[in-house]
Amino acid sequence: MSASGYVSGLIETGGKCTFEFAGDGRVVRVASEGIADRMTTSCGVISAPVSDFAVGLWTVTLKYELDTVSTMSQPMNVEIS
């Protein structure tokens, strides 16, 4: 499983991006470092072993934290088949 994301309206390096996948009674979290680019903070591309996921509907959210800044995306649905 791979995912990517960014934080709009914020340009900085060093924060923690956490992708959280929830489904089938499980939670899978994968972290990466936020990197400033021209217009956003990029969280890059993360990957997690497909064996961590069961078939079915999962939701994924992206959380970003650095010092006093903390923001979270709206959840998105992902279908694992």
Description:
The chain has 81 residues and is mainly β. It has a single domain, classed as Immunoglobulin-like, CATH 2.60.40. The protein is 0% helix and 65% strand. It contains no helices and eight strands. It has strands at 2-8, 16-23, 26-33, 35-36, 40-47, 56-66, 69-72, 76-80. β4 (35-36) and β5 (40-47) form a beta hairpin. It is elongated, with a radius of gyration of 13 Å. The mean pLDDT is 96.
User: How would you classify the helix and strand content by structural class?
Assistant: mainly beta
Any idea what the CATH architecture is?
A: Sandwich
**What's the number of helices?**
0
Helix content: under 10%
SS strand fraction? over 45%
* Major β-sheet profile: 5 strands, antiparallel
Rg, nearest Å: 13 Å
Shape: elongated
Number of domains: 1
List segments where confidence is low: pLDDT < 50 over at least 5 consecutive residues. Answer: none
CATH class assignment:
Mainly Beta
